[in-house]
Amino acid sequence: MEVYAGLDLHSTNTYVAMIDGENKVLYKQRHRNEAPAILSALDPFKKDVRGVVVESTYNWYWLVDALTEAGYRVHLANVSAIKQYEGLKQVDDRRSSLWLANLLRLNILPTGYIYPKEERPTRDLLRKRLQLVRNRTSHVVSIKNILARNLGVRMTAYDIKKLKASEVRTLFPDKETRLMIVRATYS
């Protein structure tokens, strides 16, 4: 018998569903986000499981690692590429899990790349760095707009980054505008 598992992972729980090669439901149940509980649900079908699909947008590392270490063939669903439930009025975790398992069974599941465990810290560091650079750029642009709107002054990003609180006090007598600039500069 062939078995396909779909796991809809959330912040505190995972809905586990399994189907056979004919799309017959074999198992469906919600579990706490604890690897032993989820592995225990899969265990009776382990020898027949052809693949396990995990749907998650942010917290999948621990589950994918546990499944992989237990010997399962794991797929990470690319949720943005799945055209789900067109025309259906009800969408829930049970249906989502079964849908994922069925997409795997039909070999039409859009998947995301599962970064190797040892490469994830570098990837996450680069993503965090990008986020911080974007935030800083946003603050600089905001200050440029405040200066242009209130004083008709253009200042380079380099000069804005060098602004000192005493210079901001000189430019703006009102504390509200100073506060906006100081918060944007030093946040």
Structure, described:
The chain is an alpha/beta fold and 187 residues long. It has two domains: 3-114, Nucleotidyltransferase, domain 5 (2-Layer Sandwich); 119-186, no CATH class. Helix content is 47%, strand content 19%. It has seven helices and six strands; from the N terminus they run E-E-E-H-E-H-E-H-E-H-H-H-H. It has helices at 35-42, 61-69, 93-105, 120-151, 157-162, 165-171, 175-186; strands at residues 3-9, 13-20, 25-32, 49-55, 74-77, 111-112. A six-stranded mixed beta sheet has the order 3-2-1-4-5-6. Helix 2 (61-69) links the parallel strand 4 and strand 5 (74-77). Helix 4 (120-151) packs antiparallel against helix 7 (175-186) and helix 6 (165-171) runs antiparallel to helix 7. The model has no long low-confidence stretch (mean pLDDT 90).
